[in-house]
Amino acid sequence: MNMAEIDSAIITEAIRAVRPDDAAEPGEAFARAVWSGVAEPGDSVAGLAIAALGAEGALAALHEGWTAERLAKLLSDSSGEEVAAATAAQALERWTPRAKGDFALEHLRVAAHRGVRLRVPSDRVWPEGVDDLGLHGPIALWTLGSEDVLRTLPRSIALVGARAATGYGEHIAMESAAGLVDRGFTIVSGAAYGIDGMAHRAALASGGGTIAFLAGGVDRFYPSGHDSLLRRIEASGMVASELPCGSSPTRWRFLQRNRLIAAASRATVVIEAGRRSGSLNTAGHAAAIGRPLGAVPGPVTSAASAGCHRLIREYDATCVTSADEMAELVIGPSDDRLAMPSSAPYDAERVRVLDALSNRSRSIDDIARLSGLSVATVQSMLGLLELEGIASVGESGWRRG
Amino acid sequence: MNMAEIDSAIITEAIRAVRPDDAAEPGEAFARAVWSGVAEPGDSVAGLAIAALGAEGALAALHEGWTAERLAKLLSDSSGEEVAAATAAQALERWTPRAKGDFALEHLRVAAHRGVRLRVPSDRVWPEGVDDLGLHGPIALWTLGSEDVLRTLPRSIALVGARAATGYGEHIAMESAAGLVDRGFTIVSGAAYGIDGMAHRAALASGGGTIAFLAGGVDRFYPSGHDSLLRRIEASGMVASELPCGSSPTRWRFLQRNRLIAAASRATVVIEAGRRSGSLNTAGHAAAIGRPLGAVPGPVTSAASAGCHRLIREYDATCVTSADEMAELVIGPSDDRLAMPSSAPYDAERVRVLDALSNRSRSIDDIARLSGLSVATVQSMLGLLELEGIASVGESGWRRG
């Protein structure tokens, strides 16, 4: 059944159930719901078509039997770059099998039943960061939980890492999430085992905001072992996905989900990652859209830190060792940084005079000879040290204390 | 007694005892021996005077009663920068108490007795790297051991770190030194407890070259607990100092000794260091003269790695996690670096087709719908996967394996 064949009252009712607070443009919202099940995450051809015609217009064109030539012309005209007819033809082939039938109404029915909300980019509350993904951005988001946490994303950090985390990594994930919550940050992650789960857990335990982005529909909590954790995230924060209810997580969708984590948050920190961990993919997305990227070092003897060291060595990730340093990725450095231990002799004379002082009294000449400094320099330095109570003078000369 | 008052035959004999292989210019070598006990390490005014007049000429001028004005004029003329009379006056005040008496003859007597050699910059074998210190460079070096190891310095790395090393740090120091020796590197360090000692020990155990720079005279092994280690370094490598025999190590001299470690080697690696460790001073010297600087990460929960993380975070030290990566600081990267885990869909279609395959046979249309790819793309990808033995086709469609 094409969208045009569905009674608009049915569309309005289905949309109202998942968008109770926003009755505007139900047709456009419905079309985005449809597209979220038609185009795989990150499909930039769909992004371009929707940008050019609106979701509803693009869907109508699809139902009316777009030819590859017409689609290619539209994409070329709107993007200003030549899009090949073959690209358009492949896109149509991708979309058509999924665009038929009443898939979207079924997605919406399940969503409404489960209390899932549909969110679109024009919404008052929308994670603006994902717009930086441009044409690769999400067409819509399906969410469970409170929208309040979306408002906190301008002060958020993604904490991600290996599923096969070590005790060290889990400890750092907990400390980091708790410390960042104390500093007013919301924690974004992917609800996976290991680092992700620890980060969410510590955020919840600290009373902080947290968002989990899933690779499949939010009606199917994944991994199943994190069912109760995800229920708690839903209760205090938010569980979100760009895929409609019923969608399975696939490897492709995990990789694309990672771009949402990187883009929705203000900075990404990889806490533990093997040399080929999926967390490096999240890090790559963060770097690609210019988000600050941090990595936590660990023992070089631990394979679980090898990916972090690689990010620091080869990809300019910032070495972060504490919640403060993670916060600095977003809010800039605090002013308590210490100066480089200088190789310049700024306090050289002080050190040399102190070296020459002992508990036995010495003459200024002796101190000058021992320190290799001039008598005048020794005299003025001894005066300072006396003021500080570090040196004292008696009849037989100068001594420490 | 002034140098001019010492019989040249006595000078020649004293110098021959510490320079048995090089009879050239005994007067200049003697004057450098004198200066090494007159000027504290890193005294750039002495460096400038010696550069202008030669060590012998500068010493003669000192003995003849340089006025501050004449010295200031000499320094200004030779450096091209205005040197204040006060600076010259302070230098003369520093030098004069030490330049009198027969200190140098006594230093040479002790050196000869102990088998110490005197080395000067014009020597055939001289650690050229220290010349990068310019006017702050050593006037002479007093050494124990074989000069062969000096020839290996073009392929050397300084391994330094905290005295208060952890088991982790000592393990890394051992692995690193052994691994670098295997790769043909000489290990330079400071013979201190902790990291330094481990680095020397592992270098010796691996049959590699190693040099220890001391902050006091080489006749007084410091720390005393490393007496037998230093004897072994002397036997297989070299123990060196810019201070004459009998000189005590002072805090100032430790800081200046660090510049020799940084300059004599081709790169410096800090293995473990607290936030204010003296190793950071060595690192600062290395950076100041443009030597590659590496730091080994460790657990962020370990205070003994905090200085290393600080070097990586704030001072652009390279994060190094293995002997190979340390060697890269000197010889450049090897070509086995892996590409960044890409966020681009380079193997996207492959992943999506694989996701859609299972042990149950599926039609190409089904796979296209599940993967969100066009039929044509699915067909070509299935062809590739079949060639690789990952997918197979039967009467009822395609399946994994």
Search tags:
homodimer; Rossmann fold; 17 helices; alpha/beta; elongated; 9-stranded mixed beta sheet; two-stranded antiparallel ribbon; Arc Repressor Mutant, subunit A; 3 domains; 401 residues
Description:
2 copies of one chain form a homodimer. In chain A, about 50% of the residues lie in helices and about 10% in strands. Chain A is elongated, with a radius of gyration of 30 Å. Residues about 335-345 of chain A have low confidence and may be disordered. By secondary structure, chain A is of the alpha/beta class. The first copy, chain A, has helices at about 10-20, 25-40, 45-65, 70-80, 85-100, 105-115, 150, 165-180, 195-205, 225-235, 250-265, 280-290, 305-315, 325-330, 350-355, 365-370, 375-385; strands at about 115-120, 140-145, 155-160, 185-190, 210-215, 240, 270, 295, 320, 390-395, 395-400. Chain A is built from 17 helices and 11 strands. In chain A, helix 12 links the parallel strand 7 and strand 8. The first copy, chain A, has 3 domains: about 5-110, no CATH class; about 145-330, Rossmann fold; about 350-400, Winged helix-like DNA-binding domain superfamily/Winged helix DNA-binding domain (Arc Repressor Mutant, subunit A). In chain A, the strands form 2 sheets. Chain A has a 9-stranded mixed sheet, with helices on both faces. In chain A, helix 3 (about 45-65) packs across helix 5 (about 85-100). At the A-B interface, helix 5, helix 8, helix 11, helix 12 and helix 13 of A face helix 5, helix 8, helix 11, helix 12 and helix 13 of B.
